[in-house]
Amino acid sequence: MSLPPFLLEILVCPQCHSALAESGQDDERELRCTGDSCGLIYPVRDGIPVLLVDEARRPS
């Protein structure tokens, strides 16, 4: 289940304030920061984005 489009329009990366893009499969949904210098990946758990920098991971 993907996030509603209006939610993706207002959510931003808490680290660098860039837009977020949805990626991953339904069971492993995540939000990727689109900022060139940041790129953090935030998990989505039970349909709720976890926008905590401490919970984010760096791209591999």
From TrEMBL:
What protein family does this chain belong to? Answer: Belongs to the UPF0434 family.
Q: One Pfam match, by short name?
A: Trm112p
Q: Which InterPro entries match?
A: Trm112-like (IPR005651)
Which Gene3D superfamilies does the protein's record reference? 2.20.25.10
**What's the protein here called?**
UPF0434 protein FB465_2654
